[in-house]
Amino acid sequence: MTVLVASDLDRTLIYSAAALALTMPDPEAPRLLCVEVHESKPLSYMTETAAGLLVELSADPDVVFVPTTTRTRKQYQRIRFPGRPAAYAICANGGQLLVDGVPDRDWRRQVAARLAAESAPLEEMRAHLLSATDPAWLRKARVAEDLFAYLVVERDLVPPEWIKSLTEWAEARGWTISLQGRKIYAVPRPLTKSAAMREVARRTGATATLAAGDSLLDADLLLAADQGWRPGHGELADADWTAPHVTALAEKGVLAGEEIVRAFAREAAAVGTLGA
Q1: Residue 250: Cβ-neighbour burial (10 angstroms; 0-12, 13-18, 19+)
Q2: pLDDT higher than 90, residue 180
Q3: Inter-CA distances, 101 with 18, 74, 147, Å
Q4: Is 249 helix (H, G, I), strand (E, B) or coil?
Q5: Mean pLDDT across the chain, nearest whole number?
């Protein structure tokens, strides 16, 4: 049996220094492996234990490990995971499907058709974001892969009622708003990680799917998987979100990432035993 493992990356599998949540005394902190460098500086980490487990998981011929992220292709390609390179990767929240590092054009055309039919245009959303945002707390405004928009903000200065108002405006036009750290994402509702995961499962003949994620944009991925995990931090944890087949972990920060990889390995082995 082929098992597809689709994992969100930032604050699920990999962690910036600010997101590590190392609350133990320094001598007891886990050893860390840097898996991303940006502008010549280390940016993202896993524990060495998680890295070792990922090497073993990706080496299993019956496991298809699929990094699944809202990052753009360029941002994703900075990451250097240990172990066998992933044959498939899902970027731009499902808008880009990479096959051996190359964007799949047929998939992008399918995505474009769904967005045109089911959600308001990107330019309408972008124009609204720029007109409604206060320069006092806006730091950057970006468009990713010509698919969705996001803002980098001073989070403590963003009024909660502004987020609520934006969410209502966006939902009426087929868009979703997600607040992750210092970023506010505006993503078309048809642009989902779950759709891309199903496509990879179809291509690989996967008979079981495992997933993990921490944000609102991961909820559809978790619901579409046979089994899922979410860490004890993030949007989903803050909302106390779960589902019958989704395990809500107590661990937070980089240790949650380690527990997620451990769970993937354990459940993949169990599925393999059942199929033997």
Answers
A1: exposed
A2: no
A3: 29, 11, 19
A4: coil
A5: 96
Query: Does 124 have pLDDT greater than 60?
Result: yes
* pLDDT single digits (tens) 192-223: 999 999 999 999 999 999 999 999 999 999 99
17 three-class SS:
helix
- The Cα–Cα gap between 268 and 209 comes to 9
Confidence band (pLDDT; 50, 70, 90) for 36?
very high
Query: How many Å apart are CA 183 and CA 258, to the nearest integer?
Result: 24
Q: How many CB atoms lie within 10 A of CB 30?
A: 17
DSSP state of 10: B
262 closest CA partner among 243, 246, 249? 249
Pairing of strands 63-67, 41-47: unpaired
Cβ neighbour number for residue 207 with a 10 Å cutoff = 15
β-partners of residue 4 are 64, 209
Cite the DSSP H helix spans in the chain.
48-59, 73-76, 105-118, 122-132, 160-171, 193-204, 219-224, 235-238, 254-275
Structure tokens at 147: 């698919």
CA distances, 88 to each of 33, 50, 103, 204 (Å): 23, 20, 10, 10
